C-alpha cells in the first residue's frame, strides 16, 4: 500500500481541474447541469479501473473457479466501472498523508445516490472487489 501511495503522490493541477471521470458522465453532467463538472485525468481513471478490475478478476476466479474469459458476461464487462467512492478514496490516497475510511457500504433501505430514488446497487460495479482493495 505504501508503494501505491508513493506512486499516487503527485501534485494535482488545481487550475486544470483534472482528476478523473468517464465519457458517460460528460453526457449527464453538462453545462446545463446544476452541479459543476470536474473532468478527471484519464491516467487516474485508468489506475482506478485497473485496480478494481484486478481485484474483481481475482475474486471471480477464486470464488467461482471459472476462467477469466467468463468474467465479462458475469459483470457486464463492457459497462464495468469502479464506484465514485473508490475514486474518492484513490484521490484521498494520492493527496493525503493519512486516510481514514468509514461508511463504505450502506443499508438496503438507503438510496444508491443522494440525488436519485434508486435503491438497488448497480451490477456494473464490483463493490466486493473494492472492499478487498480497501482491506489491504
Rg estimate, integer Å? 16 Å
User: How many helices in DSSP terms?
Assistant: 6
**Beta-strand segment tally:** 0
| Topology order in helix (H) and strand (E) letters | HHHHHH
The span between the termini is 7 Å
Residue ranges: pLDDT <50 for 5 or more in a row?
Answer: 5-22
Question: Mean pLDDT, rounded to whole units?
Answer: 72
Helical proportion, percent range: 40-55%
Percent of residues in beta strands:
under 5%
Largest sheet: none
Tell the overall outline.
globular
Class inferred from helices and paired strands: mainly alpha
General description of the model:
By secondary structure, this protein is mainly α. Helix content is 44%, strand content 0%. It has six helices and no strands. The chain has helices spanning 2-8, 23-28, 42-64, 71-74, 84-95, 127-134. The protein is globular and about 35 Å long. The protein starts with a helix and ends with a helix. Mean pLDDT is 72; it is low at 5-22.
Amino acid at each position: 500500500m505504501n508503494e501505491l501511495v508513493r506512486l499516487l503522490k503527485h501534485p494535482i493541477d488545481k487550475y486544470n481541474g483534472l482528476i478523473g471521470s468517464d465519457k458517460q458522465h460528460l453526457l449527464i453532467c453538462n453545462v446545463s447541469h446544476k452541479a459543476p463538472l470536474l473532468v478527471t485525468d484519464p491516467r487516474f481513471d485508468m489506475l482506478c479501473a485497473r485496480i478494481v478490475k484486478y481485484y474483481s478478476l481475482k475474486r471471480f476466479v477464486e470464488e467461482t473457479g471459472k476462467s477469466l474469459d467468463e468474467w465479462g458476461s458475469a459483470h457486464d464487462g463492457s459497462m464495468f466501472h469502479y464506484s465514485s467512492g473508490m475514486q474518492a478514496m484513490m484521490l484521498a490516497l494520492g493527496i493525503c498523508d493519512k486516510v481514514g475510511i468509514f461508511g463504505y457500504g450502506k443499508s438496503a433501505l438507503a438510496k444508491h445516490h443522494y440525488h436519485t430514488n434508486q435503491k438497488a446497487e448497480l451490477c456494473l460495479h464490483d463493490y466486493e472487489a473494492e472492499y478487498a482493495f480497501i482491506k489491504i
